[in-house]
Amino acid sequence: MGAAISSWFRSPPRAHGEVNDDRVVSFLELFYDLVFVVIIARISHTLAGDVSWIGIRNFAIVFSLIWIAWINGSMYHELHGREDGRHRSSIFVQMALLVVLSVYAAGAADDPSDGRGFAIVYAILLTVVSLQWFGLRRHDSPEMATMTGQYVAGLALIIGIVIVSALVNSPSTRLALWAGVVGVTVVGIAAQAIGNNATVSEALRVTESMAERFGLFTIIVLGEVVVGVGDGLAETERTGRAIATGMLALSIGFGFWWNYFDFLGRRQPRNGLRTRMLWVYGHFPLGLAIAAAGAGMVSLIEHAAESRTPTDTSWLIAGATAGILASLAILVTTMPHHPGRRLVPYTLAAGAVIALILGALRPAPVVLAASLSLVLVAVWVESFIRHARHGTSMVEH
């Protein structure tokens, strides 16, 4: 019994290259992602109450930090985790820290006390994740161990910046430091992509379970659209116009889901480091834009009776839709080539431009919601027709 317990809690992580192509997303990973539902819901609620350029900026920075935490924890478990006591315990520790983090998330950007608390807990969370990656070096080849050491050094730099942010009193200075964390992350990703290192390419595998995991996170942020519509209808007089606006706003969320899962759902990108990295990190602006759109639904419905959508609300909804379409246009280029998908990036890009034009025109909320829904339908229909001409199904390809 003692040997069994020791093995259950002391088994080593899977080394780089030890890929389990048959693994599926576990119930523990689903449980882990549920905590992110809470955190994203809290920061989305803050944005819904402050639809302004400052509110959008604050939301984008805090969401970015949350996504960085999610990608680092999720990638470790996907590539190196096992279904044993050691790895389960590590995820539960992270979940506990994420719950505490959610307490401070709503006011992290503008409340000095919450901002400091968020920074402290976030630094502890990333330290736990970093220790996992650091421990991996003992089980890797020298080349992989060197690469992992560099990765941990990058995480250590981020942790250092976050700790400094906990020591400052000014919320604006703290936000600037957090923006620096995002900048360091982007620079690190760009450096890896430009370097096109064979060792990094070997380490970054996109398995079927990883593709499913990214799809599940997309569903998490899509849930914010549903929550936003529900909150908007609950907080305003439920007139026929308000309900119609809410249903059309919900159809925007349906359009997000329909396009993402028909173009990308459960599909792995082509081989090549740059293509894989574009697929992985291209999901970041996609998730950010979907969550922002969900937060904007509340204001859209609250102003349903007005003849024109308020400027900030119009730009938030239309800009988020444009961001989603642009992200999809980029992500689709990572998919295996197929004649039915040849023009999809261009139609998605054209849809993004039209969405921005609609945002600038600021029509009535019900008209804006209907128009954006039609844009999402149009880009999907073009691909559907093209697939049909080749006798294939979008779902199969």
Explain the layout of strands and helices:
Layout: H1 2-10, H2 27-48, H3 53-80, H4 85-105, H5 112-136, H6 142-167, H7 171-195, H8 198-203, H9 208-234, H10 240-263, H11 273-302, H12 311-332, H13 344-361, H14 365-389
What does this protein structure show overall?
α10 (240-263) packs antiparallel against α11 (273-302). The mean pLDDT is 90. The chain starts with a helix and ends in an 8-residue tail after the last helix. 78% of the residues lie in helices and 0% in strands. The protein folds into two domains: 25-203, no CATH class; 207-397. It has helices at residues 2-10, 27-48, 53-80, 85-105, 112-136, 142-167, 171-195, 198-203, 208-234, 240-263, 273-302, 311-332, 344-361, 365-389. It is mainly α and 397 residues long.
